[in-house]
Amino acid sequence: MNKNIIEKLVWSIALPGFGQFLNRKYFKGIVLLILEFLINIQSNFNQIIIMSFHGEIDEAIKHADYQWLMFYPCLYFFAIWDAVKDAGGGKDPISSLPYALSAFLVTVGLIFSSKLMIFGVLLGPVWLPMLFVFPGIAFGILIKKIINNIFLKTIP
After folding, report:
1. Which residues of 139-148 are buried (b: 16+ CB within 10 A; e: fewer)?
2. What is the pTM of this model?
3. Where exactly are the structural domains of the chain?
4. In the predicted model, what is the mean pLDDT of residues 86-108?
5. What are the pLDDT digits (tens) for 33-52?
6. Taking Cα atoms as reference points, which of 149, 82, 59, 139 lies closest to residue 106?
């Protein structure tokens, strides 16, 4: 990835919509930013982040509005993928796989975040979904390589 693409990736990680602004896709950037704020406010996301950082996982679970929070992973990873794509990255047809699988697995992590314990610790609606990002990226890259090597006969 070139420096321009990495810049858009990092700004999109910081806040959905920022990468689109840098790509001069202002309408998309505004829509993503509005959706981010709407979902953030409706799901109490900032409040549950603070509680999670303070170790108050049970309180974070109680305050989380999961009906709204479930939208966040797809919005977040779509914004990242879209900014990278518009910056010139991901030209092959399956470049979205790592982003899509990350969104999927983070959503799965969110679904089980109020019950699933890792090493006897309940991680809640912030930490568990964050842990699921890494397998999402890894599986996405692996499947992308397999598809490229087997079906498209190219090396990524």
Report:
1. bbeeebeebe
2. 0.88
3. 3-150
4. 91
5. 999 999 999 999 999 999 99
6. 139
